[in-house]
Specification:
The chain is of the alpha/beta class. It is built from 16 helices and 18 strands. Helix 6 (about 135-150) crosses helix 16 (about 525-545) and helix 11 packs across helix 12. The longest helix has about 35 residues, at about 305-340.
Length: about 550
């Protein structure tokens, strides 16, 4: 066997890090090929090559996922697994970006960059290895490969593993969305019974300088909440005769950014407040006309609340924002009239707020063929290779362009990607068994390694575990579909397959710091000595929970 010792797993991780595999780039497929080729050398896959497959990932660039089945013994019980091999970009490393995928060399030279005190301390300790993707999550991929090799050689093991290695997790999760139908196909063809899904994402500190290790029994969800703003354009020489879309947008930003009302609390867990991911008006060239339209979208984390709950809050924010902007223009007009001594007729407007579904319904009354109009628009834009967010904005803009309703308005909407939240319910017998397996494993780690691992209800870093269960599926889909313009057009969710798999989830992996930063690093001894042992104990306990 070749991936069983600390040094062997570490070397495999370094080889994975050496492969540049930035999300949504052609380089992603290089990591997929490497994983496939490495697994294919194992005796099990030499004898059962049909159990190792590459799955094409749809899109304008060639990408692939790897799905590996490992069947042992007569049991139908199957543990699913998922790990992602894509990473965020490398430009943040500046002068060292060309070596950030070489952990040994990068660790030697990272001191040349501006390091915070915690990073300096970790570097000087000699206990950490720095590099892009070493924490998030190529060490986790190596651990999954380690488990496949270990159990394929364990004649006493009675169970099945079905693991997927995917890309695009850092963008749209298109890798796992392509892998899930294939995993379900294998489950049905081989007559397997999936009972849980394991991810080996690293644990994330819940606060600065958090040194705790975690095991997660759920994962946070994500909504990308958007506001499309249509103002009333005017010449800058007549600034009181219009309603600037940027003014409305600024009021939205003031109300949305870090708004604690959008934070959910479940037990002692609280979701982080929203923050903007993009904001812009739609003027492409300079001129002296105020911008007609603009948009902003926000990252929202979810534990339990449905998309409808968040949409109601978004509508409230939008209503307050556009009304405040209009009132401000009227007040300023009055103040200017007093200051100038000139009689000015204030502008008369009817500010409005719609959800996308409401505005779509209004426009469809004017254009019964609206669906075809939107599909034609998508075809016209295909050559531009727009991402899902930009395409969403273009579709909303198409609606407002053809609509006869030119009142200033805010249209609230959702854009891809959507990550369902997943949690365990203590009142559910199967879920309780997963919790007990987690507790038993945590006790094992304490007894054998004197390591304290805390159990957390939610992994808050966002991960592909979201797609292995769908809570309150009907309510979610009935509201999400009509308010996400590209859903079932260019953005697809294998919802039927997800609902058929529908298993509890658990996440346990290496420990590190600063994912997505140039100071990304992994705690070497714990991650490559302790974690492999504890991970196998967790798998043993998960299978025992099915008996």
């Amino acid at each position: 066997m070749k991936w069983q010792t600390k040094e062997e797993i570490l070397q495999l991780t370094k080889k994975l890090v050496n492969i540049k595999s930035i999300s949504a780039t052609p380089d992603e497929i290089n990591a997929a090929h490497f994983i496939y080729e490495q697994l294919s050398t194992l005796d099990y896959y030499q004898k059962n090559p049909q159990h190792l497959v590459m799955v094409d990932v749809p899109g304008h660039i060639k990408r692939a996922a790897v799905v590996a089945l490992m069947k042992k013994g007569p049991s139908k019980k199957t543990l699913l697994g998922v790990g992602h091999f894509d990473t965020v970009g490398i430009d943040d490393a500046g002068i060292l970006k060309d070596i950030i995928t070489d952990p040994d060399e990068y660790t030697k030279q990272v001191v040349k960059l501006n390091l915070d005190e915690e990073s300096k301390k970790d570097l000087e300790s000699g206990e950490y290895l720095f590099g892009r993707g070493i924490m998030d999550m190529k060490a986790g991929d190596a651990l999954l490969m380690h488990c496949l090799e270990y159990y394929s050689n364990d004649d006493s093991f009675d169970g099945n593993l079905l693991f997927s290695f995917v890309g695009d997790e850092e963008v749209n999760s298109e890798g796992v969305l392509a892998a899930i139908p294939k995993m379900l196909e294998i489950i049905e063809k081989e007559d397997l019974e999936a009972f849980a899904c394991l991810d080996t994402e690293p644990d994330f500190g819940l606060y600065p300088n958090d040194n705790n290790k975690y095991m997660y029994i759920g994962t946070v969800g994500k909504l990308l909440a958007g506001f499309f703003v249509l103002g009333k354009e005017t010449h800058v020489g007549e600034s009181l005769s219009g309603l600037n879309s940027n003014l409305i947008l600024a009021n939205i930003v003031k109300r949305m950014e870090l708004n604690i009302d959008f934070s959910e609390k479940v037990g002692s867990d609280v979701t982080l407040p929203p923050t903007s991911l993009k904001l812009e008006d739609h003027k492409r060239l300079y001129n002296v006309q105020t911008p007609l339209s603009a948009h902003v979208y926000y990252n929202l984390q979810t534990f339990k609340d449905s998309p409808k709950v968040y949409m109601d809050k978004m509508v409230k924010v939008a209503t307050e924002a556009i009304n405040e902007a209009y009132d401000y223009v009227l007040k300023t007009t009055n103040d200017f009239e007093k200051k100038s001594g000139s009689a000015i007729t204030p502008i008369t407007l009817q500010p409005q707020v719609y959800t996308y579904a409401q505005f779509y319904d209004e426009v469809s009354k004017e254009y019964p063929d609206i669906d075809q109009i939107l599909l034609d628009t998508i075809k016209e834009l295909q050559a531009l290779e727009l991402d899902e967010r930009d395409l969403t904005i273009r579709l909303i803009d198409k609606l407002q362009t053809i609509s006869s309703n030119k009142n200033p308005k805010v249209i609230t909407f959702f854009a891809p990607p959507y990550y369902p939240h997943v949690s365990l319910n203590e009142n559910n017998t199967n879920h309780q068994k997963i919790i007990e397996a987690s507790n038993k494993t945590i006790n094992y780690a304490k007894d054998k390694f004197d390591v304290d691992i805390l159990q957390a209800n939610y992994f808050q870093g966002l991960c592909d575990l979201s797609y292995f269960a769908l809570e309150d599926a009907e309510d979610v889909l009935n509201f999400l579909k009509p308010n996400m313009p590209t859903l079932n057009k260019t953005y697809s969710l294998p919802l039927e397959e997800i609902s058929k798999i529908d298993v509890p989830v658990i996440n346990y992996g290496p420990h590190g710091r600063d994912a997505h930063k140039y100071t990304e690093r992994i705690l070497v001894d714990y991650s490559f000595s302790t974690v492999p042992d504890v991970l196998k104990e967790l798998i043993t306990n998960l299978f025992a929970s099915t008996k």
